[in-house]
Amino acid sequence: MAKAAELHKQFDLKARLRDGSGPIDVLSTIRDVGIMVLFRPLEGLLGAYVPTPSAAGMLVTTQRDHHVQRFTAAHELGHHVCGHSAPSLDVSVGFVARGEKDGYDAQEVEADAFAAEFLLPKWLITAHARRQHWSLPDLSRPDVVYQLSLRLAASYSATCWALLAADYVPLKVAQQLAKLPPRLSKQRAMPDFQPDNWYGDVWLMSERDAGVQIVGSPDDYLVFNLEEHAAGGYEWGFDALNEAPLEVRHDQRKHDVPLVYGAPVTRRVVLQGNAISQTVVRLDERRPWEADENALKSLELRLALLGKEPVGMVRPERFISA
């Protein structure tokens, strides 16, 4: 855990992410440390670490999603920064957070503790909670934990155990949360649209997400709930997404009940990614007949809908810009 904190400080990660604007970019850190990473369809393994006298390298499976790839890469990085001299073949990661330390040697326990602390430190959980205005009781709600996991680019299960490690939830609550399938949270986040399947993640977006980095997969859903001043002629311009790798799948306006004349409405729009991409998306609330600079509000997002790494080296576009 101390080694993880050292890397946070060395690469200025805490200062850069203290506003809750994104997850820890473990692949960029591995690159900066000078370790070679290769992604391969490993059979029976999540990853491997191979130290040599002149360099070090790691393998990460392509048969699991990007959340598992990230945690596995962090685990292998833990072997390196902890100075482990023996090669490691890893069939399991994340066991320390779950309390499963028995049966693992000291090097595996160290690497796993490093990975959990490096990717899911308490200060980063706190930063995202503050940005989203989540209270301490909110962090015991499965729907909030699911949304937090997306912003940490971690699995739902890993996030449950990270909340326990941060003393934000007791053991019993962490165990109860971890047993719940994320699909239920997805369905509650998008009750008014039925997708073909529930494989993609469902992000609940608002103006609190302005400037954030969305690290997800190409088929993820972005559900926007935005205040719109329609009575004054203002509307959010989702037409600007025509050239972005996103499709509008659902669009409606909801009025407050009871209806108040001239009051803002809620614009609810469901977007879905349709291609592997990394781009910046900007939405403006303005009158359609006025110039772009007259926007009442603006919302800009940095999208990295890249999904898991394929066979080979890390894709250059994977690295998250500061």
UniProtKB/TrEMBL annotation:
<protein>
    <submittedName>
        <fullName>ImmA/IrrE family metallo-endopeptidase</fullName>
    </submittedName>
</protein>
<keyword id="KW-0789">Thiol protease inhibitor</keyword>
<keyword id="KW-0646">Protease inhibitor</keyword>
<dbReference type="InterPro" id="IPR010359">
    <property type="entry name" value="IrrE_HExxH"/>
</dbReference>
<feature type="domain" description="IrrE N-terminal-like">
    <location>
        <begin position="32"/>
        <end position="147"/>
    </location>
</feature>
<dbReference type="InterPro" id="IPR036331">
    <property type="entry name" value="Chagasin-like_sf"/>
</dbReference>
<dbReference type="InterPro" id="IPR052345">
    <property type="entry name" value="Rad_response_metalloprotease"/>
</dbReference>
<dbReference type="Pfam" id="PF06114">
    <property type="entry name" value="Peptidase_M78"/>
</dbReference>
